[in-house]
Amino acid sequence: MIDLNDFFADPTVTIVPDGSSALMEEDLGFSTVVLENNPTLGDPEVIVAALGTGLYLDYAFQEAAGETDSFLVELLDAMTSMALGPAFVFSSDVTSMGTILFDLSTLVGSQLGLRITLISEPGDIGVDSTLTVSNLRLDPLTPMGNGLPLPGTMWLLLFGLGAARLRVWKPVG
To answer: What pTM value is reported for the model?
Structure first.
């Protein structure tokens, strides 16, 4: 588990004492609220990518009725603080919850940071949307997160191969 207490947090971010989760709430004074681990700014929790490892993050985004908010999660290059590109960015502008997975296999040995941003989009007049992030961790990739076929896909593939074989071996009559 990666300790969120080691991250920079805007004033409207509440991190639980054990660092396992954080609640991000909209702020009247700012259009964005940030929870960030940025190694170039001296944040201590550097993420080091390894083969077969994924960075997992659970989230629950609650967008208040009639508001136009979104959130963004981006992996950062530890040397430049720049986002690593589309494969390492997740965003949502609808109420949702789930687990985000970034496959770090292509970044083996790289030092990384992480930025999580709650964004009040233009035209948003309320401050009632929230984002909870929890269980930030480096874990081995699961079969579904590793590009392996799902069990149902395997059955379809086997059925297709069997049907093709029957067609090839069908006696001519």
So the answer is: 0.77
